[in-house]
Amino acid sequence: MQRMRKMVLVVAVLGCVPAQAQGPPDPRALWEQATLYRDAWGVPHIYADNPYALAFAFGYAQAEEHLGPMLLAYRVANGTAAAALGEPFLESDAFSVKMGHASLAVAAFDEAGPLTQALCEGFAVGVNTWMFEHPGQAPEWAEGVRAADVLALWHCYLMSFAPFDLEGTWRRAPAADSGNAWALGPARSTSGRPILVMNPHTAYDGPFQWYEAHLAVGPLDVAGATLYGLPVIIQGHNGALGWALTPNVPDFADMYAEAESPQPTSKKDAESEALRLEYLQAQIAASSQPVFVNGDRRATGDS
After folding, report:
1. Angle (deg, nearest 10), helices 90-99 and 101-108
2. Cβ pair 281, 235 in contact under 8 A
3. Using the 8-state DSSP alphabet, how is residue 15 labeled?
4. Please, which contacts does 203-212 make with residues 24 or more away whose CB atoms are closer than 8 Å?
């Protein structure tokens, strides 16, 4: 999971203390640095002076349209969906805790660059500002968004494609089982312009939903689609090139069934066991008892 620290996206946050929806001291200062308008199809176009203001306006725009599904996606990634929606999400929450989406996001924040931090923090402030300005319009279970939630969701999305092939073990369904992407050069189109088609085969429900937008800051000008809850375009085009996403079943993960070792007979065995297994405790409000989950992210080959 060390690769998480190298991701272009973000983060930071406070352990399990619920975040409160609060706006920045003066949102007007950020709106003076960003412009948001929607075209005839409702697609947001955002022009900003800096990445923080860009992400702020984008978070505000997304909250305005689909706050509930976005907040639920964050809960799924953080392993707290059952606290809001009950037992149907218990296995999902336990899986998210095992995968460490939230804890890895928090740990990665200190190593994130200024751009990543600005995008995630600005986006979280934008969502929270909309909630702060529209009391009573969020779900009853809504909490304020934290910068780390963005990275947790991104990690949750990427890891949904991992080939978890251990029979009898619950896993999250891949964000897409199939898809297609293709392009036509100018010589092959009637308009004389290149055409890029992006067609991710995504379910109508679930935590990974696409959102179209156009973002511009400084020399960067990109249009395309992102997921609910992310502050950047992840498939689209700029003035020079276009790109798309489609799954190709990469084999980038292995899954092991771990069992506790017998009672250690020596200090060395005890230390080895402590390094090999990490236990995480997730208190899920929908359950009458705490759920203990074997994180198993530091397993070594010395078992």
Report:
1. 40
2. no
3. S
4. 203/173, 206/173, 206/175, 207/72, 207/73, 207/76, 207/77, 207/153, 207/156, 207/157, 208/73, 208/157, 208/160, 208/175, 208/176, 209/66, 209/69, 209/73, 211/62, 211/65, 211/66, 212/43
Q: Determine the topology of domain 2-162+213-243 in CATH.
A: Penicillin Amidohydrolase; domain 1 (1.10.439)
CA distance 17 to 213: 32
pLDDT tens string 23-55: 455 788 999 999 999 999 999 999 999 999 999
Q: Are 27 and 40 in contact (CB under 8 A)?
A: no
pLDDT digits (tens, 9 = 90+) for 208-258: 999 999 999 999 999 999 999 999 999 999 999 999 988 887 777 777 766
DSSP assignment of 73-119: HHHHHHT-HHHHH-GGGHHHHHHHHHHTHHHHHHHHGGGS-HHHHHH
Residue 105 neighbours by CB under 8 Å, 6+ apart: 4, 10, 11, 13, 148, 149, 150, 151, 152, 155
Residue type, position 51, single letter: P
